[in-house]
Amino acid sequence: MTSGNWQVASSYRRFVANEGAPLYDGSALEDLNTLPLQEWERRGGRVAYTRLGEQENINLQVVEIPPRGELKPEHHLYESVMYVLQGRGATTIWQEGEPKQTVEWEENALLAIPLNAWHQEFNSSSDEPCRVVFGTNMAHVINLYHNLDFVFANPFSFQDRYSHSRQRFFVDAGSQLNLRLFETNFIPDIKNFLLDPYPERGKRTSVMRLCMASASLSLHIAEISPGTYMTAHKHGPGAHVLCVGGEGYELLFMPGEQSRRRVALNPTAVVSPRRNEYHQHFNTGSEPLRMLAFKEQGYSSKYGTGKSYQPALSAQDKDPNAEIFQISYEKEDPEISAEYYRELESKGITLRLPPLNQGGH
Fold it and tell me: Which CATH number characterizes residue 292's domain?
């Protein structure tokens, strides 16, 4: 600790340092597939961690498994959902003293890791590495308990979440609980997963929130049609928006700022806005722009948290200082849509939003 600086490194940062792994921060990473990783003694393969959006609630763990390689088994008291960036392989999951269950996966698969159940990942390819990303609340849990034995060596078995007796845990297709909310534990290909319309967030947009393995970790898949962009919105920190298909860009700006940061959105790019930072997604291609979002804990899609949730639309004309707020198309800076349409014109894309006001889009 230096003189005049009372801050100390968090337990999460010390954990990452002890792993010998890089820790990436900021608001965006351009390509998780080419992100430099380090050798990982604890589990094998290679690894990197993130601290995006100036927060330590949700983080990403990016892992590469060599050809015909495998990771060492582990279990942990943080929640984790695995997305396959590239390659093919399998994950074996089990509770202590119970038979093992194996789930095979390929690129674009999404697999929930049940809380504190044992899991081990394998690369099925003989000549290509595979790379996966785990969206987790590891950072929060390690900071909360600051005891790694409790996090990684706790023997408690959450039988209510997963046991071998639930034979179809990763086989059932899942079920839709209500509008824009689906419960499942495994999606073989999220690029082709059916979504529900979401007109409240923008024209020709759709979304599906996911409840996986009874976790409090919140996820959703969103899609923006060609010639379309989402309204600017803000909320608490922790959301990690991973582009999984299509092309476009993200605008990021703080309330009152005149300048806006622009981040390219291509498959395997990730954006994580800071607290109160407005962000909006723009599709500049001829195909849908699809995104996977790992969101902060406490906003579970299935389980109540005691928080008072004010929908963004009801707040948009009332309190711009509210944590959840969005700016309607009609009230945004006209240069936002003008810049967007100039880019579409340069690419020969003629689709447009319908006219919304006298200025028109």
Answer: 2.60.120.10
Is the distance from CB of 62 to CB of 133 less than 8 angstroms?
A: yes
Co-location of 332 and 199 in the same domain: yes
Beta bridge partners of residue 80, listed in sequence order: 113, 136
The three-state (H, E, C) secondary structure of 70-84, written as one string:
ECCCECCCCCEEEEE
Judge whether 236 and 297 are in contact, CB under 8 Å.
no
| pLDDT reported for residue 312 | 41
Does residue 138 share a domain with residue 185?
no
pLDDT at residue 222 greater than cutoff 70 = yes
Residue 243's pLDDT band, with cuts at 50, 70 and 90, is very high
Provide the domain limits for residue 250: 175-346
CB 209 within 8 A of CB 220: yes
Going by the DSSP 8-state scheme, the letter that residue 33 receives in this structure is T
- Both 195 and 314 in a single domain? yes
For residue 313, name the pLDDT band (cuts at 50, 70, 90).
very low
pLDDT at 59 over 50: yes
Would you say residue 316 lies in a domain? yes
Distance CA 210, CA 220 (A): 5
pTM of this structure: 0.90
Q: Taking the mean position of all CA atoms in its chain, how far away is CA 255?
A: 24
